[in-house]
Amino acid sequence: MKPLFITITLAALMAASACHAGESRRLFMDVHELDSVTAAAVADAHARDLAVQDEYGVNFIRYWVDEANARVYCLAESSDAQAISATHAKAHGLVPQNVYEVTGGIEEPASADAKLFMDVHKVGAGKVTPADVAAAHEKDLATQGDFDVHFVNYWVDPRTGDIFCLSEADSADDVIETHRHAHGLISDEIAEVIQGE
After folding, report:
1. Could you give the CA distance from residue 23 to residue 148 in angstroms, rounded to a whole number?
2. Sign of CA dihedral 67, 68, 71, 73
3. pLDDT tens digits, residue range 38-62?
């Protein structure tokens, strides 16, 4: 009987893997709003996510911790938003308040020791397209050297109109001034973040 059980279990696992492999992979940014948070606690929670992500067909890519505002941003690939929330729920119980389906730009290499900032633009539902954000990002890149800022990447959810920009800078003000001079779109939120993978 034991060999039959093992055969069935292996067949089920192979079928589940094939199902996940055949699904369309989409990119998501999920945001956790917490009462308090530390980078060490998020690193532990992320390790738990990685331990169970395959069960849900999720691939967590990287995350950023805003300790000052008790906020965590997670970038992941999945077939749907529900799988991301389910992974977090099983791993540690910290389900995100929002999960955004996003498209991103071309990632620039980041420095190992630079300060990182995540700034968020809340443009509004239906008011921005990925092409709009790509054009604004090009203007940021053309202007960033004037303020010693280095934009690493951006992600946009055109459905909600939320844009997330990751950059290296000495201060949040430098990032804001880059945006102001590049295209005039000022962030609704900006904070220093700690990156993890």
Report:
1. 41
2. negative
3. 999 999 999 999 999 999 999 999 9
